[in-house]
């Protein structure tokens, strides 16, 4: 079934196996991605800090980009956790959908 949201659409489904949760699986994958992104961002910041010959403008651009990517993955992880654990609260669906699709848009454009 198609669900239209903010000029786009997404595909919804009806779960056939009640104990299997696609949002929980996706939450697990997003958490792994967040962990990898945070570790590599920390390593990038650390290595840039201890370079002998520093280029300030390039370092600033790289730090801003790495920080934004990490923050957007954290927003994605938050929305996936809400989908995985609080999917029975209908008032959260609109907020979660908007935050999730917005974070995906910023990650793709960024």
Automatic annotation (TrEMBL):
One of its GO terms (biological process) is sensory perception of chemical stimulus. This is Serpentine receptor class gamma. Belongs to the nematode receptor-like protein srg family. GO terms for cellular component: membrane. It comes from Caenorhabditis nigoni. It is a multi-pass membrane protein. Keywords: Membrane, Transmembrane, Transmembrane helix. It is found in: Membrane. It holds the Pfam family Srg. GO terms for molecular function: transmembrane signaling receptor activity. The chain crosses the membrane at residues 24-48, 60-79.
């Amino acid at each position: 079934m198609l669900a239209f949201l903010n000029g786009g659409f997404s595909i919804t489904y009806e779960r056939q196996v009640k104990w299997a949760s696609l949002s929980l699986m996706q939450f697990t994958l997003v958490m792994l991605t967040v962990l990898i992104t945070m570790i590599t961002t920390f390593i990038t910041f650390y290595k840039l800090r201890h370079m002998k010959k520093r280029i300030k403008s390039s370092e600033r651009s790289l730090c801003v980009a790495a920080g934004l990517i990490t923050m957007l993955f954290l927003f994605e992880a938050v929305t996936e956790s809400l989908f995985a654990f609080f999917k029975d609260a209908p008032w959260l669906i609109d907020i979660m959908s908007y935050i999730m699709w917005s974070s995906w848009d910023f990650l793709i454009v960024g």
